[in-house]
Model the fold of this input.
Amino acid sequence: MKDKYDFGLVGLGVMGRNFLLNVADNGFSIIGHDLDQKKVNALIDEGGDTAKVNATTHIQEFTEALGAPRSIMLLVPAGHIVDAVIESLLPLLDEGDIIIDGGNSFFTDTDRREAYLRKKGINFFGAGVSGGDKGARKGPSIMPGGNRDAYQHVKPVFEAVAAKYHGEPCVAYLGPKSAGNYVKMVHNGIEYGLMQLTSEIYDLLKKAGGLDNMEMHHLFAKWNAGRLQSFLVEITAAILARPDEFNDGHLIDFILDKAKQKGTGKWTSQNAMDLGIPIPTIDMAVSMREISALKAERLQADALYDRPRPAHMKKDELLEKAEEALYFSFIMTYAQGMHQLADASKTYGYDLDLAVVAKIWRAGCIIRAGLLADITEAFIAAPTLPNLLLSPHFVPKVTETVPAARELVSYAASNGIPLPGLSNALTYFDAYTSSRLPLNMIQAQRDYFGSHTYERLDREGIFHTEWGA
Ligand code: 6PG
Done:
């Protein structure tokens, strides 16, 4: 047992254990706390030297072993467990101590906890941690929000353990209160969008081109070496090559087509609705998880309706267009997420620097992608840019790739292949870039049936018309 440890971590599940060992690898002494004696013992065994890595089931032993101000990170499931852990720590803490919630907590919970703890002199951080268990061990992207001065105490640890992009740590102080959790929530919304789009392109390649798993494996791997370079494209390539352990063939063909969700994508959509910011590709990705869950109904419905037998596209053309359309739709997804962040930053007073957000997503996190270097540049050039589609950096990239999206969406529609994410990304683009939309008709209808009034193009003021019967 060491006299005082540099950092404390509550929750020795996979994420907690891996994050803790990462902290220790970077030369900080760390003590973990978990009520499960087996997890505590396993960690002490793995740590080797208890002066560097220790763990205890006793919360008081844990808090007493930490140097002042105490920095305690919680990696426990989001929800009431976070409140319960905070309550058990509180009587044992001193003013100026720091609690960091590293889970996917809902941002308003973080605001509530921050205000509650501030009154007690405790600094509370909501810090999104992305990269899964491997990221936690080898270098995650970390998105902290809270008190700026208190951040200085945890900054050395976070900068040491975070993933590095060309030597720059993928962590930065993002803003007050729940800024970190909010950014992580939108990160997950973007994650949902990119996953949906990748899965649609996989489906299209099979149905429109007859590609087999290994052909698709090579294709995704090739794409990952180009402008589509990203963690999700990389793992898609790897997944496609994985043989099944029970049957001949590949594992992917034996996985049930029902995707679960823990809620962060849904929260992103719900909050975007509250803000009045359109993120339809992310909404659609959430809806697709819901449709996927209706497997029994889908089976019934499939038997009731005929669908066209897909006519194969010319392979070379399909492969080229699929790459372009995926790139186009990835841009639309990031554009929607960044748009939401830009608006939330004003509404919730986060004062986010979107170039910094894009920077810390360039490595370590699930949505890391070559595109994020371009997004960083766009926001450095125009920090208050409301939407990436307005950036001169993005106009040529979108202009070059949107024709492929049009072609594949129209092919898929006439061949009965669902491409909800891609078609939605395309209609988002077409609507956002239209100077005139048919919403004049909606205004007229509202005024017709409800005297809701309307504005005019040619003169100032509010108007109402007696439309007749
Ligand atoms: C990350 C991920 C992670 C998330 C999983 C599962 O950044 O490491 O976003 O936080 O929990 O991806 O999310 P769903 O269960 O909602 O798909």
Notes: The chain is about 55% helix and 10% strand. The radius of gyration is 25 Å.
